[in-house]
Amino acid sequence: MPTKSDVLIIGGGPVGLSCAYYLLKSGRKVTLLDAKEIGKGSGSGNAGHIVPSHIIPLAAPGVMASALKWMLDPAHSPFGMKVSLDPNYLSWLLKFVLACSGANVQRSINPLNDLGQLSAKNFAQIIAEEKFDCSYQEKGLLFLYKTEQAFRDGQHEGEFMQKHGIPVSVYDKANVHEIEPAALEGVIGGVHFTGDAHLNPAVFLKLLSGRVRAMGAEMLENTPVTEFETANGKIFKVRTSGGDFEAEQVVLAAGALTPSVARDLKLNIPIQPARGYSMTMSATKTMPSHALILGERKIAVSPVDGLLRFTGRLEVGNYSMIPNPVWIQRIENSAREYLHLDEKLDVKETWAGLRPTTPDGVPIIGRSPKHSNLILATGHAMLGLSLGPGTGQVVAELVNGREPAFSLSLMRLERF
Ligand SMILES: Cc1cc2nc3c(=O)[nH]c(=O)nc-3n(C[C@H](O)[C@H](O)[C@H](O)COP(=O)(O)OP(=O)(O)OC[C@H]3O[C@@H](n4cnc5c(N)ncnc54)[C@H](O)[C@@H]3O)c2cc1C
Fold first, then answer.
1. Rounded distance, CA 405 to CA 155, Å?
2. Average model confidence (pLDDT) for the chain?
């Protein structure tokens, strides 16, 4: 006999777990399936930045020019691409190149801003209500710059975001060293997005997963969804290696693997993995006091729980989750250009994860165009943790037939 539930969620990353939390809060009976370990996929080793300030999509004017420039300096490039003739990959690349426009930025700002603000509010609420001890700190995100040109560009970006309601402070050299003593002498300025926050992502996901289980969700690990049984535009059965499942509604939140899960549903979901790496080490003598972005090198820095994490690199098209030691070393070298670090770092963990990336840099959230009982919640790229709780709320609203907190029209799959 198939297992029956109200709502079946495929994927137990930050997005699937957040959906489960809000659905349970709304009184739904939830089953959550993960192909591997819940909360351990691409969300656990990330930077843990909660960034409602990130309202400019990845696909923006100048990105292609920067990518070409970085290719001339491969040892420092924050960006890489797989070489492949796979038609899905080539079609994604073409869509991405076409989306690198001012029009795409204008179109994307409101949905990213709406989802980012809702998520930030929900994070603060979940952490307070559930008493999650996950090193959550509302200290903003500080960009550090070493060159005049990058500092100027950072200030322009800050002014642009300020016009959209994002709080920003700009610091000259003296001020940036005063607020961030871990910065080396070569840092000449900073731009501080003061409404951002950071936390320990692995701890947050563990606590959220525990809470979801305690609220009554049935949660199964090592249970990959392999096929679906459909009729008349409706999913009747979800097949897994561990048996069949039936549900009134299905939420697909399988991160970078969403396209392969959706293939059996004849849904073409334009998502590519954008692999990135992190290294986590014991505290150094002079710990940064903020979550940071090292501007020119695009490295994220997160001080949490007496540990220090660096993350970086965006490699489009690669599904392997094995960290590349060459890039881990390069990330450390780049961090040493900006920060006081001990000569020898005590590395605790190296990690790789996949950002589920759409060509226009906006997530896909909404009902499937082909299935009346399927909701898609995916494609959050570099913001899946940050945008999780807002996504969870609007998915619960869709499932319950309520008007979502804001219009999802620009997030629907049909835009591609
Ligand atoms: C280096 C790096 C740094 C990052 N830093 C940040 C940051 O600071 N802030 C931020 O917001 N985001 C950050 N991100 C992005 C963030 O980690 C992702 O956006 C996020 O993990 C996506 O969440 P998700 O739930 O959609 O997918 P995932 O986290 O990938 O979870 C999807 C889950 O679905 C499961 N699954 C896959 N296939 C199946 C199947 N067939 N059946 C059942 N289950 C399946 C997987 O096992 C997985 O557990 C970073 C990413 C990287 C790589």
1. 31
2. 96
Count of CB atoms situated within 10 Å of the CB of 258: 23
Tell me the per-residue pLDDT of 295-321, one tens digit each, with 9 for 90 and over: 999 999 999 989 999 999 999 999 999
Nearest CA to ligand 1 atom 25: 13
Give the Å distance between the CA of 136 and the centre of ligand 1. 19
> Atom 26 in ligand 1: which residue has the minimum CA distance?
255
- Position 1 scores a pLDDT of 67
Distance 27 CA to ligand 1 centre (A): 26
SS3 362: coil
Residue type (1 letter), 265: L
Q: Tokens 């871990």 — which residue? A: 182
- The residue whose C-alpha atom lies closest to atom 27 belonging to ligand 1 is 255
Q: Using 70 as the pLDDT threshold, list the residues of the chain that sit under it.
A: 1
Atom from ligand 1 closest to the CA of residue 254:
34
Environment class of 72 (CB within 10 Å of its CB; exposed 0-12, middle 13-18, buried 19+): exposed
